[in-house]
Amino acid sequence: MSKSYTPGLKVLKNTKVKKERLLPLKGKVHVEVKDVVDSDKVVASTEIPGNVHMINLSNELNIDPKQVHEYVLINENDFVSKNQTIAQNNGLFGFFKSEVKSPIDGQIMNISKVTGQIVISEKPLPINVDAYIPGVVEEIYNKEGVLINTIGTFIQGIIGIGGEKKGEIKCLVNSESEKINESIINENLKGKIIICGSYIDHKIYLKAKEMKVSGIVCGGVDYNTISKILGYSLGVAITGTENTTTLILTEGFGEVNMAKKTFDLLKENQNKIASINGATQIRAGVLRPEIFIESEKNESSIDFKEKDLVISEGSNVRVIREPFFGRLGVITKLPYELVEMKSETKVRVAEVKFKDGSIEIIPRANLEVILSN
């Protein structure tokens, strides 16, 4: 039987999840292996150096660079305040003194006798990385971060916007095909993650953002709505850095219903705390938006491995490119021979039977396995 690996979309209950929490540059790790952490626990921190400002004291005071140290009133590594006098000449007979003031709050990084310049760095920006998901610290990366191991419901979406958020799950609909009305979004949903069923428009998103909703999960939105939220065409960019209400589409673009399996899992976890992230790597399939909800402590778990991404006869799949984008089906055959497509390229294909009973020949590169339990 012919087999191949494809991108995998995970919709899993009580599965083992491992999450790396890494700093952008080396810093300090605040936990130990086997520590139990909640999602808000700061596990590592560092500081990003601030912007650098350079002042030419030689020119400002009309002195030789070699004389700079005779006129500065501070030392290297000193902290200074904005408008604090950092250098001053003697003037003429004690009059007409010239002085140089710091343009910022910062730290003196260098005073050069060669160039006559002083370098002031803005205050460093503190960076704190939290656990994001509750769990156990499995591994420590020296001065870089940790690996968190946990068990819970893990759902991946197709497209997302916005970064990591946490909040209580609130289902606003009773079925995966139901649409919500803008009027039901109010201040009581502040900080919540709302489940909206099939489809939302731009007005609903703006209302949720106005009410300070943490996250929205729905089946789909129009492509133009995504562009309006971002302020530019989605293209092939990486999302996730936007400072806005996080949005996760579980199915794709347009008026599409949320998959029943996905909706039922989310509704089952009503009122529980979820961690979500809208970060998405477009096309490459490297990064998907995600939803995580911790399982009860006594529930058994299932561990999925790389081999579960093997596409074979009987695999549940989703088409990830046009003309059948978003459709779900089952692999009925995996022909070994290469097949010539309309583009005149020869590729490996799969015979897919869709839910309406129709059968199509689809390039394997256009399919993803749906992992569910």
Plain-language structure description:
By secondary structure, the protein is mainly β. It folds into three domains: 52-122, OB fold (Dihydrolipoamide Acetyltransferase, E2P) (Beta Barrel); 158-288, 3-Layer(bba) Sandwich (Glucose Oxidase, domain 1); 306-372, SH3 type barrels. Helix content is 9%, strand content 42%. The protein contains five helices and 31 strands. It has helices spanning 57-61, 68-71, 202-210, 223-230, 260-268, and strands spanning 4-5, 8-22, 28-29, 36-37, 42-48, 52-56, 79-80, 85-88, 99-101, 106-111, 117-122, 125-130, 135-141, 145-156, 159-161, 164-171, 193-195, 215-221, 238-239, 246-253, 273-277, 280-281, 290-294, 310-311, 316-319, 328-333, 339-340, 346-347, 349-354, 359-363, 367-372. The strands form seven sheets. The protein has a 16-stranded mixed sheet that branches. A hairpin with a 5-residue loop joins strand 27 (339-340) and strand 28 (346-347). The longest helix is centred in the middle third of the chain and has 9 residues, at 202-210. The protein is elongated and about 95 Å long. The two termini are 24 Å apart.
Q: What's the total helix number?
A: 5
In the CATH hierarchy, the third-tier topology of the largest domain is known as: Glucose Oxidase, domain 1
CATH class of the largest domain: Alpha Beta
Second rung of CATH, namely the architecture of the largest domain:
3-Layer(bba) Sandwich
Largest sheet: 16 strands, mixed
| Low-confidence sequence ranges | 1-6
Shape annotation: elongated
Could you write a compact summary of the structure shown?
This protein is mainly beta and 373 residues long. 9% of the residues lie in helices and 42% in strands. The chain folds into 3 domains: 52-122, Beta Barrel (OB fold (Dihydrolipoamide Acetyltransferase, E2P)); 158-288, Glucose Oxidase, domain 1 (3-Layer(bba) Sandwich); 306-372, Roll (SH3 type barrels), CATH 2.30.30.30.
